[in-house]
Fold this protein.
Amino acid sequence: MATLPNPLPSLATSGLQLPPGTLVDTTNDGPWHEPLLWYADGPASPGTWAGLRVSGRTVGLLPVLIDGGMRDQWPEDWDLDPAGTSYPGDHDAEDVLSEFWESYAPDELDAADDEWPGLAPTPSADGPDAPDDLATEIANELTDPDGPMAGLRPALVPARRSADIPAAIGWSGPLNHENDVARLCAVLRSWEDRFGIRVVALGFDTLIVSVGRPPTTEAEARALAAEHFAFCPDNIAHNTPDTLGAYADQCVLGKESWSFWWD
């Protein structure tokens, strides 16, 4: 994957004020030739993500929150696969989504729903906050020490744009759905452009994004629900709500964050 020069080995001399943490070079093929990410040894708190966004971007690093999950799995246990990851810019988002749709929709959705509808339109209305400001709000909510996801740890990744964070580390969370996460990052890039998303949190097989420009009409939400299904069929096929219409109403329309989970 084409990336910026990796500044992670120079963190000690970068001038960034970071808590104790770990540089991860562990992959499913053994040690990588350079660190893939840095993450803190302790939990983040409200404000941590925003601070890392401001300071990290000066040296080509972007923040993300890391979720160890119920099984306490941190990045050393994630089967990272940078060698098997291509470049997100080499893929077309609609080609990726339509291919997944054709593979999964006929078996998982009602017959009336199994024709690929095309990409959803850009919402007609902007969100109330700029995308980075909203991402900060979502990160603060996720790191609330009294919230359901308390314990998330802050991390820094060498990536050009937020949508590329999973590819930059060779994340294999969607492995049962797609072996090359860069293809899904091409979709994230498209969502970044159309909906103002930011990758806020990653777990072993989970992803949370903030949504700076969410759909504001039922038609927009229904069209986007089809993209969500193609991107992550488990969100609907193995979850509740289990129809596109219900999912659009409950999980997409006006929602400022989206969550994905791959079985």
Summary: The longest strand covers residues 61-66. The beta strands are 21-24, 26-27, 30-31, 37-40, 61-66, 153-158, 197-202, 206-211, 257-261.
